[in-house]
Design goal:
The protein has 607 residues and is α+β, with helices and mostly antiparallel strands. It is built from 24 helices and ten strands. The protein is globular and about 75 Å long.
Length: 607
């Protein structure tokens, strides 16, 4: 029986790639035999990157100490506990480590297999570590090569109809739907999330791309002009018929399972494919399109690759191809195409400059640049465009209606998708709105539309804030339980200390925003404020989301009275909260006084 393709067993969550690879790096040049696989899994446990269920209180406490990681002996105890609970591990003790490393080898970031001998970290990973590639580049380079079937997986076979590079196939499908839509409606119609989930994961052969595009157009024509209830009935009936044909069965249980899976598979694919910056979300998040700002790259890619799978002699050849950073040569990597990209970027930038009324930035004489210089210049232009987009966000954030929108989304955040990403975005926009900051710099990766594609990397603050008289970082989390403490406390204080050391000319604060502040998190931050962290006091301001909303409500009141909230006033609030912490006998007392401190500060603001 055919099954749709899924990313869940192929790729690792972006936030886990870096820490998993750092652990594997400790084992580079060691053999990845059974003992090496056991060691890798034990190291993941030691670094608190894997936590099995059913731990007793003592073993659970190994995850909750103030140290960066537990001892290796403690990690071995937990691994032995895993063995006692799993009949599979009792037969194959190394299996868990082999499973944990699999997504890293599948993506070409490492070579770690028993048959290959020593662990080796690939050039692709080293380029990521050196900052030459970001998380979006990593996923793009994997997805343009990932194909079904492939010698590394027995799940999909040519004889069962599989012959596709899913990411490339999705790009072709959206492009074909857009072209057909223009012929009928004289404008592109993109692909809805519902259509994406139904047609994209079930697109298992590149030869079916045009047929699927025709089916989407046919379904739209059938729905056109109907009311919402009729549209839903037509779409639901089509889904049912589609699933029956795909599975070649009328078994209701199998059909129901497929339709449920397709939604999950589609949502997951959108999330990961968007990291490449080649997909663009339109229509309030309901439609998926090709990124118009990558038009030249996409045009070249679609002309170069029809999404057909490549034949490989064996697994080694396939994995070697996946890991080779120089393959394939991207079709736009020429002086001619780089210049086309630059011209389009400059046009886009000039539109932003005109809209923002900023002084035009002189461009390089790119006609005199060689290929590598052109490539670097493209990166510079994209960064400058992001700076302009950040300025646009700052300008928009000054409107009262916009601030009301931030408040509404923050208050409703548990009902929204991609909550961690959204909290970083809304916190950044709220900080832009609050006062006269020189620069609010979110560190999350973004698409060309400046919308975040994922959360900020683990080795940087979520948001950096620069003001005339002081600086700050902002760290956010959606965690509520004790996980908040052992996931956040050390990175937050380390990020603040590193930020302080890079900006010695000004006092530095840290805002920590969460739905609620766990008592252990609060106690640790209170100790750093009242006493020290690494020998010096720190200025950490823990705020609940409701506290941050209250600041935005105060801002609206101030704007309604045609006044401005300056960063000096916000600095006074931060100092009041810090002083409360220093004078409190315990951390719990400090937390209870933060809303009271905000209200007192509000009453005493003078203009």
């Amino acid at each position: 029986m055919k099954t749709p393709w899924s990313l869940s067993t192929t790729v690792r969550n972006p936030e886990r790639i870096l820490p998993f690879l750092r652990v594997l790096k400790e084992m580079e040049w060691e053999n990845f035999d059974e003992s090496g696989q056991i060691k890798f899994q034990t190291l993941l446990i030691q670094n608190r990157l894997y936590k099995p269920i059913g731990l007793d209180e003592q073993k659970s406490n190994y995850y909750e100490t103030a140290k960066d990681k537990m001892s290796f002996i403690e990690a071995e105890e937990i691994f032995k506990h895993m063995k006692t609970r799993s009949k599979t591990l009792q037969k194959s003790l190394w299996l868990r480590g082999r499973t944990s490393v699999a997504p890293l080898t599948k993506m070409g970031l490492a070579i770690a297999r028993k048959s290959y001998g020593a662990v080796h970290i690939t050039d692709l990973w080293n380029a990521f570590l050196d900052g030459n590639l970001d998380i979006g580049d990593i996923y793009f380079r994997f997805f343009i090569k990932w194909q079904l079937p492939n010698p590394d997986s027995s799940d999909y076979k040519f004889e069962n109809g599989y012959n596709i590079k899913p990411f490339i196939g999705v790009l072709h499908l959206i492009n074909s739907v857009n072209i057909k839509s223009i012929k009928i409606w004289e404008k592109t119609k993109w692909i809805s999330k519902q259509e994406f989930s139904l047609f994209c994961p079930s697109l298992i052969n590149f030869k079916n791309i045009e047929e699927y595009a025709d089916e989407i157009i046919k379904l739209r024509l059938e729905i056109k002009g109907k009311d919402r209830q009729e549209q839903k009935a037509i779409f639901d009936a089509y889904r049912l018929s589609f699933a029956q044909d795909f599975l070649n069965t009328s078994d209701t249980e199998s059909i129901g399972k497929l339709l449920n899976n397709l939604k999950d598979y589609g949502d997951n694919a959108i999330r990961y494919f968007r990291l490449t910056r080649f997909l663009y979300i339109r229509g309030g998040g309901f439609y998926i399109d090709l990124e118009p700002r990558r038009e030249i790259e996409i045009e070249n890619l679609l002309n170069f690759d029809n999404a057909e799978s490549i034949k490989f002699n064996n697994k080694e050849d396939y994995l070697g191809y996946i890991a080779d950073i120089s393959e394939p040569k991207l079709p736009w990597e020429s002086e001619k195409e780089y210049i086309r990209i630059i011209i389009k970027l400059i046009e886009d930038i000039q539109n932003y400059e005109k809209e923002l009324k900023v002084l035009h930035k002189e461009n390089l004489d790119y006609q005199q640049l060689n290929k590598e210089e052109l490539k670097k210049y493209i990166l510079q232009l994209r960064q400058y465009r992001r700076d302009l987009q950040d300025q646009e966000n700052h300008n928009k954030s000054q409107g009262i209606e916009q601030i009301y929108e931030y408040i509404e989304q923050l208050g409703n955040i548990f009902n929204l998708d991609d909550r961690p990403i959204l909290l970083e975005k809304l916190s950044s926009l709220g900080l832009n709105a609050l006062n006269d900051a020189l620069k609010i710099k979110p560190n999350y990766p973004v698409g060309d539309d400046n919308e975040p594609t994922f959360t900020a990397p683990a080795n940087t603050p979520d948001i950096e804030c620069y003001y005339k008289n002081f600086n700050a970082i902002c760290e956010v989390t959606m965690l509520n339980s004790r996980d908040q403490w052992y996931n956040e406390w050390q990175p937050v204080m380390r990020h603040l200390r590193d930020f302080e050391n890079k900006n010695l000319d000004k006092k530095a604060y840290c805002l920590f925003i969460a739905p609620r502040i766990h008592r252990d998190t609060l106690n640790t931050f209170w100790t750093a404020v009242k006493y020290e962290y690494e020998g010096k006091k720190q200025y950490i301001i823990p705020l609940t989301i409701n506290d941050f909303i209250q600041l935005l409500r105060i801002l609206i009141e101030i704007k309604d009275n045609e006044n401005i909230l300056t960063h000096e006033e916000i600095g006074h609030l931060y100092d009041k909260i810090i002083n409360t912490a220093e004078s409190s006998s315990n951390s719990t007392n400090r937390l209870s006084k933060i809303p009271e401190t905000i209200n007192s500060w509000h009453e005493n603001i003078t203009f």
